Amino acid sequence: MLKLQLVTDRKLYLYGVLGLFAAQLSVLLYYTFQKEDGLYFELQESTAGEWFFIFTFLMAAAGFRQLNAPSTRLRALMLPVSVAEYMVVEVFIIVALMPLVFFATYFVSAGIAHYVDSRILYNGNRFFFFNGGDRFDESLIKGGLTFITIGLAASAIFKRYSVAKAIVAFAILFVFINAVNDVFSKLLLKSLPMTESMQAPRHGMVPVKIGPGNNGPFSTWYFQTMDETDRYVSWYQVHAPEYILLIENIAGYLMLAGLVYLTVLKLRERQLS
Amino acid sequence: MVSLQNITYSYRRGKPVLDGLNLTLAPGRIYGLLGRNGTGKSTLLYQMAGLLFPQSGSCTVFGFTPARREPAFLQQVYVVPESFVLPDLSCNAYIRLNAPFYPTFDHALCASILQQFGIGEAGRLNRLSHGQQKQFQIAFAIATGAKLLLLDEPTNGLDIPSKQQFRKVVAGSLREDQVMVISTHQVRDLDSLIDDVLILDQGRIVLQAPVSRITERLVFRKVKDRAESGKPLYAEEALGGYAVIARNMSDESSRLDMELLFNAALSGETSILPILQD
């Protein structure tokens, strides 16, 4: 089935790879020429990571396109394969083949941009080749897993405009999770005792209470101290409690497992209508 | 054996396309499925293929429930839809990539049918005419060895020699354990091919009868004057006179006029259908 899909959609994949390469090269060259420090290391790191997630997400959201497109869905539905086979093939393409394609196009386009940056513009920036350390690798895997699961679920749930709907669904989910986490963290931070150093006056202001920060899930929390007239005094960053991170992780994995279940369910229920 | 019991299906609430439909199909026979536009012929085929799920009632095909779409079931069923888009592949590549999904695929039979249709295996599918693409699909469908072949308007887009070739290929390739259902408007293309007539109207099968029984009990004639045929069960104007259906009282041999039978069955004429009951 993998062979059938790759051969049948070979032109789509080819155009996709060329489009990806062109987009990567354009953005990296734009940064090279427009940024004051050229294509500096951290910029390369963040660009590569963001592109990887976006690419993975879009590929996953278009994953079951053969079952969705009116011209191919009858043939795809009548192909004697199980839902599990469909899933395995799609996951293999997205998890194993597409990252190879992504890294290959990234290294070529980033290599060209880095050559321009270092040999023509003499910016002297280091070349980023996904050497961001363990933290980067872990976030790449976790983020990739989330994007793939949400993308595939959207592709199975939405028959029409699955990519666009996947983006909207992801945005809603992102806002919802962040909002819940933010409320949760603010409630806990409210009861945080103010230490002596936190109460020390700064810039002529005396901090007397803790104010709200901006807190995303799976991360450190932020809060501020304020004086009596609610003026901001200092920003603080704290590690979220271990049990909170554990709850967030469990909830996150449960959500992903739920989405996988929903994907299988939707594929099994798929009809021609 | 294909069995549909009390099948109901509607695309819109309150407007059932299939409404308590009952149907049983036996192996080794070619069924001609006739019906007006929009009466649900394709919907019925898709129910048997597991492409649409019944909203009530039950459907079993060779012991499988089509809605589950198990691979073992899908290996036994092949649908040739009325319109389709074939991928940008050569005929050879298409066969090479798709045949492994069907354990009983007969490469020699496929090559032989394609040769009869005059389609070269090296040619690209998207450069074939619509009629040739349809012929390719039919050849592939027959070669899969699927026990249930569902053809939706297979002769649409075929030229006259191709229609003749189609009839020859189908008649010569069907095995005793296979069932073929051909949904069509072009009844004249198939009246020499089919074994059983199915007429679908208002969500139900209003007539299911073997051709042999129809011609045994009814006689189809062309007459110049209506009075010539005595008391016909049904008559309609035809070129140079009337086409009539009468009761076959004297073992008269006549060729089934499927179009006439179809018109009679749907005309509201109540005397014909009871005669054809088993």
Describe this protein's structure:
The complex is a heterodimer of chains A (273) and B (278). With 273 residues, chain A is mostly helical. Chain A contains 10 helices and 3 strands. The mean pLDDT of chain A is 84. In chain B, the strands form 3 sheets. Chain B has a 6-stranded mixed beta sheet, sandwiched between helices. The model of chain B has no long low-confidence stretch (mean pLDDT 88). Chain B is globular.
Write the topology of this structure.
The complex is a heterodimer of chains A (273) and B (278).
Chain A: H1 2-8, H2 10-34, H3 41-61, H4 65-68, H5 73-78, H6 83-120, H7 133-157, H8 162-190, H9 196-199, E1 209-211, E2 221-226, E3 232-238, H10 242-268
Antiparallel strand pairs in A: 1-2, 2-3
Helix pairs in contact in A: 2-6, 3-6, 3-7, 7-8, 7-10
Chain B: E1 2-12, E2 15-25, E3 29-35, H1 41-49, E4 56-61, H2 71-74, E5 77-80, H3 91-98, H4 107-117, H5 130-143, E6 148-152, H6 160-173, E7 179-183, H7 187-190, E8 196-201, E9 204-210, H8 211-217, E10 218-223, E11 234-238, E12 241-247, H9 258-266, H10 272-276
Parallel strand pairs in B: 3-7, 3-8, 5-6, 6-7
Antiparallel strand pairs in B: 1-2, 1-4, 8-9, 10-12, 11-12
Helix pairs in contact in B: 4-5
